[in-house]
Specification:
Helix content is 21%, strand content 35%. The chain has 5 helices and 15 strands. Strands 8-14-13-12-15 form a 5-stranded mixed sheet, with no helix packed on it. Strands 1-4-9-7 form a 4-stranded mixed sheet. The longest helix is centred in the first third of the chain and has 21 residues, at 16-36. This is VanW family protein.
Length: 284
């Protein structure tokens, strides 16, 4: 890829009032889309768990993230619990679409949300409801281990902190920002799915369940991971792949697909990297 290092600031970055106007306009536009897109969004919940589990995952609540304010991390746990309550036990029936933003709504102080860490304009900073992307990250990891179809997903354009006990591949998450950066997937199968979320002392935990057992499963893995230094700036790249395999017959692989390619600026100094020139092409 050809890397363009110098990026002009958006007008909304130079003039904060224009930023708020832009956000307001995009939110209005999204609400109009919700009214007229003819999608059937998931709203029904059931406290009775569906019989079969497809995938379970957990993520640590408090992490070491550079020199950040630990209070923002503590606040994040409160934010996660409020948001998770809006999603827990949700059913995704055939032809329904899951929308993170429609279910969670706008994080506000009135709802009990606190300032937590959010990533915006190339930096980590405090914002009301910050940190709830940890839920969308977890859900996306569950979903890509299933036959559900992801039709809207965004990821951060930069990597602000070194890995600290990272379990999942870099770039395998899904960021959200109410309401125009949503995380959505559609159930194009004849089965009903369910997302359950809960908390332990140290972790956010979640699972994806289904009403009928499948005879296949998925394995998601990373390829071509590298840190690059290009004209004194650091970048990170990789590829996320997925295999679909039979649970029986020796785990025969039915298909292999590339889910996404990631390339993001890194705001810390990696311990190891490859240095290349800015005009050099790197083949993906």
């Amino acid at each position: 890829m050809n890397v363009k290092l110098r990026k002009r600031k958006l007008i909304s970055q130079r003039h904060p009032i224009l930023y708020f106007i832009a956000v307001w306009a995009r939110r209005v536009q999204r609400k109009a889309v919700w009214l007229f897109d003819n999608k059937k969004y998931s709203t029904a919940k059931s406290t009775e768990k569906l019989p079969f589990r497809i995938k379970k995952h957990q993520s640590v609540l408090l992490k070491k993230l550079g020199e950040n304010n630990m209070q923002l991390q503590i606040n994040k746990v409160t934010n996660l619990k409020i948001a998770a309550a809006q999603i827990n036990n949700i059913l995704i029936r055939p032809k329904e679409t899951f929308s993170f933003c429609k279910l969670v709504g706008l994080p506000t102080v009135k709802k009990g949300y606190l300032p937590g860490m959010e990533l915006s304009f190339g930096e980590a900073r405090a914002g009301i409801g910050g940190g709830i992307c940890q839920i969308s990250n977890l859900i996306h990891w569950l979903v890509i281990h299933s036959p559900l179809t992801v039709n809207e997903r965004y990821h951060h354009s930069f990597d602000p902190f070194p890995d600290d006990g990272r379990v999942l591949p870099f770039g395998s998450g899904a960021t959200v920002f109410y309401n125009y950066r949503d995380y959505q997937f559609t159930n194009n199968t004849p089965y009903t799915f369910q997302i359950n979320l809960w908390f332990t002392d140290k972790c956010l935990e979640g699972e994806l369940r289904i009403d009928q057992e499948l005879d296949f499963a998925y394995h998601v893995f990373e390829k071509e991971h590298q840190f690059l230094k290009i004209d004194n700036q650091f970048f990170r790249k990789n590829e996320i792949w997925r295999e679909k395999f039979l649970k029986f017959q020796g785990g025969k692989v039915l298909e292999t697909e590339l889910l996404t390619k990631n390339f993001a600026r890194v705001t810390y100094v990696p311990t190891a990297y490859i240095e290349i020139s800015a005009d050099q092409n790197t083949a993906d």
